[in-house]
């Protein structure tokens, strides 16, 4: 049985930008540009800023604190640098390195002797404890506009598993449709923007198997304690903390069987025989009865099972096992059979 959850589509758009110059790639989440006092144009990219569409930028100078969005500034000299950052400057084929002091961007460039022409632009990328500065006449940005579709959760119901058990059969992933645009800036102005790629990743569903059998456990689930009341009823506490109830316990003659010869793989209930199936006289125990079986000599715990097969008479219970060797080793034993509610 399957249950499909409602499919949720996220309408949010995620925008990223990547600035590229010869031999340098700068990754960032936002794009900001301005005019410097020297007439050059500057693009400030703050790696932890929120998504911002380039067409939304207005004014002369824009900085961002990564939390409150865009904050307008009057001059690029207001871009103060934290002292102690590793700084790399790429300009006209040269690569300069230094450590920032208590200074702004333009004071740092002046200290390094870097002269910016009016036709050049400055790209600044901040990362952990580092600043990358690129100066060039042209920058190419790749803008990613994405729509995310949440994955579905599908439940598969299993009437052979306890109702408290859920097993993830497949981990799902969200789908994402992305359009990639190439944006070219020259002399501080955007001169081109075109769609160059589409990436469509389909969502995959999370599949969860959920048991539906009440007051039951898997065949091999470990038992921590069995408590019996004066009237013969009681509780079985599993090591995982689940508590099952039984109405009575009876002593029965236990035997074992497996497939082969005249014994097929289908039970009298129409199910496929497996460990956790027992054969009974349905006049003694009705088919479908849930039980927990242990041998009275303390040497064998068959565990939780369901009476799904027949072929025995009277006060006997026949335990299915995978091999003939196991059946021989078990032989005939007196067993306590707890009848679960």
What does this molecule look like?
This protein is mostly beta strands and 341 residues long. The chain has two domains: 1-214, Resuscitation-promoting factor rpfb fold (Single Sheet); 215-340, Barwin-like endoglucanases (Beta Barrel), CATH 2.40.40.10. It is 4% helix and 55% strand. The protein contains two helices and 27 strands. A six-stranded mixed beta sheet has the order 4-5-12-13-9-10, with no helix packed on it. A hairpin with a 5-residue loop joins strand 20 (223-228) and strand 21. The longest helix has 7 residues, at 105-111. It is elongated, with a radius of gyration of 36 Å. It starts with a strand and ends with a strand. 24% of the residues are buried. Mean pLDDT is 79; it is low at 1-75.
